[in-house]
Design brief:
Number of domains: 2
Order of helices and strands: EEEHHHH
Structural class: alpha+beta
Strand order of the largest sheet: 1-2-3
Shape: elongated
Radius of gyration: 27 Å
Largest sheet: 3 strands, antiparallel
Length: about 170
Amino acid sequence: MIDKIDSIESRPSDLNGKTFKIESACGSMYVTINLDNGDIFEIFANSGKSGSCSAAMTDALTKMISISLRAGVPAIEILDRLDNIRCPKSNSHKSCPEAIAEAMRRLMREENMEVDEQELEDAQIYDNNWETEITYETTITQTTDTCPECDSPQYNPASEGCAICPACGYSPCG
């Protein structure tokens, strides 16, 4: 698991990679994966019509994946998190994140990239951390329709300016 990111690798001027055509819920998706020194370095994906919301989300997702890879996040951890993200548009086709995961899986197999069992175990431990309950402390200001001084139901603290109780004259403003 990565505790701290020290740096993000600069992009070399030339990279080699491969493009995969994968059917997704948004139609044919073309996923290009570039390698640097035998490791996945960056990912680009083209899905749907340019200017569409799904195309924008896919572009944003691949930019985040690429910067994560360049910061040292293992590709297997990213693949693990993208896998099995379902799309409400279709039960028969992969979601855009699943299509990217599929392209990564294919490339890793083709390039005979070894997956370290410890990386897989760390990814599963990291996934379990997402399931922990998160609580937020909030301050709730209680409002009442009765005057805090005389309990008159005519008091309206939500009125404009400073509220004044018509029964006893109470005002929180003094």
